[in-house]
Amino acid sequence: MAFNDDSFIREVNEELRSDQMKGVWRRFGRYIVVVAILIVVGTAGKVLYDYWDDNRSSGTGDQFLAAMKLADENKNDEALAALDKLEKEGHGAYPVLARMRAATVQVQKGDTAAAIAAFNEIGKDNAIPAAVRDAAKMRAGWLLIENGTYEQVSAAIEEMAVPGNAFRHSAREALGLAAYKAGNMAQARQWFQSIVDDADSPRNVANRAHMMLDLITASGKAPAAQG
């Protein structure tokens, strides 16, 4: 399904102006999560590509690409078998890349619990570069928004929601959405406000944060920020 971010924001703004606040989250909440996840995946993909590019001389590169092709063709079990072999026998960056890709294939299969566990395991492995660990933690955190509690999301990614961290914008948004989903509007407001207050927040993330702040204000369940 094609998705246009500008038209999405425009339609949401129209919905806000018509005071149908409760309907906004019901209609668009899942899309908000999906769009934000795509951004996280893109950021994580850049980190992983850089990691792969630094180690691409390995002779297992063709095997990794073949495994990715199987995954792209939704031959999930075959892809997992190939990735498992790479994790055990691959050289250079490929064992780590195979673990990350295998966790993504678990999502494709619908086994979200296995994917979360795999990403969490990667995030805790100090033998893996910090940027890749953070990418894995972010993937786990976003999956937990719909499949876990606010506390679980916080445990996975709150440490990245700090100034200077490359993933801070995505981490704050995930935490805000998790708090909103849990009904903790005051906490959700704090996270979305931190996005708005950060001059370096990407425009699309800031736009969604503004929208969520409007929803929270309209709900009457959290006081508006004092300017």
UniProtKB/TrEMBL annotation:
Pfam families documented for this protein: TPR_21
Chain ranges of the Ancillary SecYEG translocon subunit/Cell division coordinator CpoB TPR domain: 23-202
Main location as per UniProt: membrane
Residues in coiled coil: none
Membrane-topology annotation of the record: Single-pass type II membrane protein
Transmembrane segments: 28-49
Record keywords, A-Z: Cell membrane, Chaperone, Membrane, Transmembrane, Transmembrane helix
Subcellular location: Cell membrane
Family annotation (InterPro entries): SecYEG/CpoB_TPR, TPR-like_helical_dom_sf, YfgM
Family (UniProt): Belongs to the YfgM family.
Protein name: Ancillary SecYEG translocon subunit
Organism: Rhizobium laguerreae
